[in-house]
Write a structure and sequence with these properties.
CATH topology of the largest domain: Rossmann fold
Strand content: 15-25%
Structural class: alpha/beta
CATH architecture of the largest domain: 3-Layer(aba) Sandwich
Number of domains: 2
Order of helices and strands: HEHEHHEHEHEHEHEHEHHEHHEH
Largest sheet: 6 strands, mixed
Strand order of the largest sheet: 1-2-10-7-8-9
Distance between the termini: 45 Å
CATH class of the largest domain: Alpha Beta
Number of helices: 14
Length: about 325
């Protein structure tokens, strides 16, 4: 299904009451390390602490009152769960959320905070889908996909649209890749509003279905994700993948052992909290630093919902990163 420039413009207007125009924050220590100009678009300032409010609000606000009265259901490892729960509360609907048992405990708590009914399932996309579909049929609720739908893609595109309004000279826009909604939406935003910008996806080496699929031009569904970046463990969806393979410039990989050290390093240098998933682009960019010299780069920091009690020691971060 095509996602047009008009779809993105409508999504931008439709989601405005529910999203924050998040700032572009300069990152001097990365400027110096990479000899580039680097900003992060910090989505932690959203009301749920993550970018997922964009897609969820674009989807749920298009439902009728009759559909909202039936309730909404979704499956998510965390941030989309919070977004759907938040939007259901804003619009007077009920939210039924399916989350894997290994989800970040803070994200489970936050989904419940917004009044959602949370049900845990065994990890894995098939289990999530099966459980969500069962609840959907039992409750008569409307499914809100976490990434694999044109409305979600159009909503996520608003982050890049804001970026191009704030800066018209972005060379690289670097996006974490999980289900692909944000990467696909960002690529479309660049196509329609900033065609000189190259959009790069970043994925953990131990969850590289998107990378494999991008390289061979065919969606990959057999990779078993095993990464600390909990927001990127899911398989790229069909709708996002069809956009990504046509519109994204490249996908870079982050070595697993570099993800947490880069997260801690970012905390230390900027005093801003980011999730492990947000450190993936930084780790991947450092591996590809030769391509960054002299470039103007924006990295989307997708969220800051970190359960600090679950983290191990940072150790000697500088020694690990080199």
């Amino acid at each position: 299904m095509n996602v047009s420039k008009f779809d993105l413009e409508k999504a931008f207007s439709r989601t405005e009451p529910y999203r924050v125009v998040t700032p572009l924050v300069p990152v001097p220590f990365l400027n110096e390390r990479w000899n580039a100009e680097v900003w992060v678009k910090h989505e932690a300032f959203q009301p749920i602490g993550a970018f997922k409010i964009r897609g969820a609000s674009n989807f749920i606000t298009q439902l009728s009152r009759e559909e909202l009265d039936k309730g909404v259901v979704t499956h998510s490892s965390g941030n989309h769960a919070q977004a759907v729960a938040f939007m259901a509360k804003q619009l007077g609907s009920c939210a039924y959320i399916i989350m894997p048992e290994d989800s970040n405990p803070l994200k489970i708590k936050n989904a419940r905070k917004w009044g959602a009914e949370v049900q845990l399932c065994t990890p894995g996309i098939e289990s999530r889908l099966r459980t969500a579909e069962k609840v959907m049929h039992e409750k008569g609720a409307i499914m809100v996909p976490p990434f694999d739908h044109p409305w979600i893609v159009a909503g996520q595109a608003t982050a890049a649209m804001e970026t191009f309004m704030l800066r018209s000279d972005v060379d690289y826009l670097v996006i974490p890749l999980g289900g692909g909604g944000l990467l696909a939406g960002s690529a479309l935003a660049a196509k329609y509003f900033s065609p000189e910008t190259k959009v790069i996806g970043a994925e953990p080496d131990q969850a590289k279905d998107g990378y494999i699929g991008f390289k061979k031009g065919e969606r990959e569904r057999t990779v078993q994700a095993n990464t600390v970046a909990d927001g990127l463990r899911t398989t790229v969806g069909e709708v996002p993948f069809n956009i990504i393979k046509e519109e994204v410039a490249d996908i870079w990989l982050a070595q697993e052992e570099k993800i947490l050290p880069w997260m801690f390093k970012f905390w230390q240098e900027t005093h801003l909290i980011i999730e492990p998933s947000c450190a993936v682009p930084i780790a991947a960019m450092d591996t590809n630093r030769d391509q960054l010299k002299g470039k103007r780069i924006v990295v989307v920091i997708t969220g800051a919902n970190v359960d600090l009690g679950q983290l191990t020691s940072a150790g000697d971060v500088d020694a690990t990163l080199g």
